[in-house]
Amino acid sequence: MSYSENLDPDISGFNSHLGYEADLLTALETMEGAGLIFNRSAIKEWPGIWLLPATPRYDLVGGGITILESRTRDATGTTRVTFTSGHITFRQSLLVRAEDAQRYGSHDDLDDARVAVLGGSTGEHRLLQLTGVVDAEGNLAAGTVIHLGDGTSFTADGSTDYRITAAASTGNLSGRTRIEGAQGTVKEVLIMSTDQEQLDALDNGRVDAVARGELSNHQASRNSNSRFVVTALDPEVEYGGFAFDKDDRALADCVDARINYLIDNRRIGFAEWVEDPEVFLQRARYWNASAENDGDGCSLAATGSTHQSILLNLLLVASILFSVVFLRERIWR
């Protein structure tokens, strides 16, 4: 959905933003009256990035981030950010080798499987939830063994002391690299830091499946010439959006309204963009030629005023999930 041209930070293409969200933001820049310009740079870290707009340095964050109410709050339970209404829908899924499609056709089939996940992602949490490793509140089932990067391990007792959700985890689970599920759940979950690491592990047989969003998995299947296939689509639909500081609700609403126009209130999605990558730019042209362009720019809570142009430095997590973060550097024109 959003990715860097080159995942190596020492290569110039690292800062080149590509994909669905890249084209969506480019179209947003061309909409008359919005007054938004994105100067895009890439970063690698994923966990907790949705809270970065609450810091003085950032304006907003996006890039395949599932909208969850729990992600609006920090570790103290204080609301820090707000989300747009969602510009893309997707479901969690499994990516498996073609010969294993029937063997791992459901999350109920993973009791003998090793599964790769991106640590701290919705993919990790939903896998654990769908296989029974965690309950509805994210508490790990009794008997679950957690391995940390420093070589230590411990066994969960079913209490709230061992919790993993899509928003956060208890401190004692920070640095987890491997989870052994209790009997009847999943054999082993390997925590990885990049999408490429997950795909390599599936390719070389280190894992039997990759648990993540269907859009990325379908793309990986196409890129593999169907050596990999997508199974076990989650019945629960997720919405991806952008996060803003809670005090920048006016800016969030302004951006949200224009994005909703570009996606025609969710009538245009990933499949339509794949069919025609120019679809968002075409919608922007319609906007510019219509009376719907009211000429009002997007305003910021810091000033309470509209302006002709905001230059927002956009940082992008250099993975297939590709999170984007906008620096609070404002240049008025």
Explain what the structure shows.
By secondary structure, the chain is α+β, with helices and mostly antiparallel strands. It folds into two domains: 3-29 and 38-85 and 249-327, no CATH class; 92-231, Periplasmic binding protein-like II (D-Maltodextrin-Binding Protein, domain 2), CATH 3.40.190.10. It has seven helices and 18 strands. An eight-stranded mixed β-sheet has the order 10-9-11-12-8-13-7-14, sandwiched between helices. Strands 3-17-18-4-16-5 form a six-stranded mixed β-sheet, covered by helices on one side. It has a two-stranded antiparallel ribbon with strand order 1-2. The chain is globular and about 60 Å long.
Q: Average pLDDT, to the nearest integer?
A: 85
Q: Spatial order of the strands in the main sheet?
A: 10-9-11-12-8-13-7-14
Count the strands? 18
Oligomer: single chain
The proportion of strand residues reads 15-25%
Query: What's the end-to-end separation, in Å?
Result: 32 Å
Unreliable stretches covering 5 or more consecutive residues = 303-308, 313-333
Count of separate DSSP helical elements: 7
Estimate percent helicity: 10-25%
Largest sheet: 8 strands, mixed
Order of helices and strands: EEHEEEEEEHEEEEHEHEEEHHHEE
* Radius of gyration from the alpha-carbon trace, in angstroms: 20 Å
What is the number of domains? 2
Choose one word for the global shape. Answer: globular
Q: Structural class of the secondary elements?
A: alpha+beta
